[in-house]
Amino acid sequence: MAIGAVLGAVALGATVAVAQAPAFFRIGTGGTAGTYYPVGGLIANLISGNSGGVPGLVATAVASNGSVANINAINSGSAEAGFTQSDVAYWAYTGTGLFEGKGKVEALRAIATLYPETIHLVARKDSGIKSVRDLKGKRVSMDEPGSGTLVDARIVLAAYGLSEQDVKAEYLKPGPAGDRLRDGALDAYFFVGGYPTGAISELATSHGISLVPIEGPEADKMLSQYSFFAKDTVPAGAYKDVPETKTISVNAQLVTSAKQPDEMIYNIVKALWAEPNRAKLDAGHAKGKMIRLETATAGIGIPLHPGAEKFYREKGVLK
């Protein structure tokens, strides 16, 4: 009863302060083995009232199937915010790509760009796969249906003159894909996420891996064709015995709905970027150092939430 009353008050546009009771802010993240979940937990802690964030706010990180699932949850009202790849957010807002024929998610709004999400093409160390073209005829996991990674994997293959029909495609989540790679039942798999990610680190340490570069004129063409891609480099040593690897990335973003009250989102953004939280972001996760106010509005392909926009204008991040 109390929870229903609180959520009802929030839905009617009451601020956290006016509600005089906990306001629950569910943040959809990703699988527990990926990067979204721990970073989401870090952010939830920073903005929650009991940690010095927004008074009365109880933010929680919720494990999910990732970008598409989070956007759908925001759209349906079963989550207040969520993590997504910048490409997936753009497709949802415009009704293209993964959301072709499904209608536009016109209420989708950005809170912040967080950090680059690197496209990993992970291969068995003994696979002989040195370039994307070497995937021809190989057993390759493209990630599960409905994932942003699957769409990105198709774009990467196409840039190098390949399609799913040219590889022995499987459609597995990163965890099971890593298991099959370890067992010798898979040659390579695509993963989009911040480095280093725990599951790949474990695989590199226990069995050894190679990262396949995504570079050259093919990568340059992708960057010119798709504005949500950027050049990226996995530094030497990010994974055990893996040298520096050139690749591409998309942005991880925190998004919400236009239906969320302006004052609430303003207060959440203000809490996230509060000076005392800088040290907590730096220490909380390997990607935390890349979550910076000066890049919070970079590469956003959808409108900012008005509450977030107000804060960024006040801070001079937006002119």
TrEMBL record:
<feature type="signal peptide">
    <location>
        <begin position="1"/>
        <end position="19"/>
    </location>
</feature>
<dbReference type="Pfam" id="PF16868">
    <property type="entry name" value="NMT1_3"/>
</dbReference>
<protein>
    <submittedName>
        <fullName>Immunogenic protein</fullName>
    </submittedName>
</protein>
<dbReference type="InterPro" id="IPR011852">
    <property type="entry name" value="TRAP_TAXI"/>
</dbReference>
<keyword id="KW-0732">Signal</keyword>
